[in-house]
Design a protein that fits this description.
Length: 412
């Protein structure tokens, strides 16, 4: 089986519109959550906060015509992909037929859907854009990226809610490992901060109703009461290890293990026994094949919802064993960037990769009152300088999806 290297990173997030800015802010514990500005909440509306992008301009990445003909979730994907591709130096160094694109979105073109539905109901059927369908379908970001980079191999889109982009990285890893591609541009993007999207999550009581940005996204804290909606994109270039070495590529890490399972329990709630998540973590660890004493860091799913954090804590104990779990540092990036839905897994994988490479573990900001049911080392408030040899990125999703990615040190 072939080894898989990480050779390029790209991110557009609520705390930075590129990877260096994102990482600097993440380590500094900078909060990307603020008052909702994408739309004016009506009187009595309980969701007042969001983790929005700041100063993002799609015209920095595409021409005005292309921007008008695509949804914001595609704008974000293009921006993150352009950074990842430039970072990798892969362009011109890969057989186009051996280059694939695996990207996803949990929802797709929500702004397009709501806007065109309003046109239909208030202005008539003839006013609906002929580009309505191409702009809204979740696979369009992947298609546009394949065109942009002339990737003639497989072009796939995964839709598994909040596990989407962890699945795209994992399936890209398998494609390279089993010889179906030499490199894959993989990740996810999401632009869900629209009135109907926020309201849908709000009415199912998934969102916090806090109006204090510093006490809103509170993973593993006893005060937690729901997540904060985020947006953005994360993209990673994965490459067959010897292909990367032969062209002298910078190698951030090795993607060494991938576990994916389903709870088959409930449409939104995790199985409280933690078994499904634990099985995904164990599968990633087994594939990575590292000694049990290997120093480890976990970038947790950590949404700040009451059920998720308690169940994830239990799952880590089941997967690692009580003793190893208690000595393993864990943190949640969602404490700063909110929940980026289909982009979350890729952005959190980037955090896990950089924690491994830089020897700095990001904090869980806002964690001031630990929940007794969440009793692991959740790195509260401030980053920790600590060398580890392996990092895990865990994602869970509505529908019962569980994913774990394992990264180890690369050579180069």
């Amino acid at each position: 089986m072939k080894k898989v290297a990480v050779t390029g990173l790209g991110a557009v997030t609520p705390i930075g519109n590129n990877v260096p800015d994102f990482w600097t802010a993440l380590v500094a514990g900078r909060n990307g959550i603020a008052s909702l500005t994408h739309f004016e909440p009506p009187p009595g509306y309980k969701a007042r906060l969001a983790a929005e992008l700041k100063g993002f301009d799609p015209l920095n990445y595409m021409d005005a015509k292309s921007a008008r003909r695509s949804d914001p979730f595609t704008h974000y994907a293009v921006a993150a992909a352009e950074e990842a591709m430039q970072d990798s130096g892969l362009a011109g160094q890969i057989d186009p037929e051996r280059f694939a694109v695996y990207t996803g979105s949990g929802i797709g073109g929500l702004k397009t859907i709501t806007g065109e539905c309003e046109k239909y109901y208030y202005k008539g059927a003839r006013r609906v854009s002929p580009l309505f369908i191409p702009m809204l379908i979740p696979n369009m970001a992947a298609g546009i990226l394949a065109i942009r980079y002339q990737a003639l191999g497989s072009c796939l889109t995964n839709v598994t809610a909040c596990a989407t982009s962890s699945h795209t990285l994992g399936e890209a890893y398998r494609a390279i490992k089993h010889g179906y591609a030499d490199a894959v541009l993989a990740g996810g993007s999401e632009a869900p901060i629209e009135p109907v999207g926020v309201t849908g999550f709000l009415n199912m009581t998934a969102l916090t109703t806090s109006d204090d940005p510093e006490a809103a996204s509170l993973p593993f804290d006893r005060r937690r009461a729901g997540f904060v909606m985020g947006e953005g994109a994360g993209m990673v270039v994965l490459e067959e290890y010897e292909h990367a070495r032969a062209r002298g590529a910078k190698i951030y890490a090795e993607l060494a293990g991938y576990g994916t399972t389903c709870d088959a329990y409930h449409i939104t709630a995790p199985n409280p026994d933690g078994n499904g998540t634990a099985r995904a973590i164990r599968a990633a660890l087994a594939e990575a094949n590292q000694p049990e004493e290997t120093p480890l860091y976990v970038n947790a799913h950590g949404t700040g919802t009451p059920l998720n954090d308690k169940t994830e804590t239990l799952a880590l104990k089941l997967a690692l064993g009580e003793e190893r779990a208690r000595r393993t540092p864990v943190s949640s990036s969602k404490s700063m960037v909110g929940h980026m839905l289909g982009a979350a897994g890729a952005v959190e994988a980037i955090a896990a990769i950089l924690a491994l490479r830089e020897g700095v573990l990001p904090p869980t900001i806002g964690l001031r009152e630990p929940d007794p049911d969440c009793d692991l080392d959740y790195i509260p408030l401030e980053a920790r300088r600590q060398e580890v040899e392996m990092t895990l990125s865990v994602s869970l999703a509505f529908g019962g999806h569980n994913v774990c990615l394992a990264f180890t040190r690369g050579e180069g």
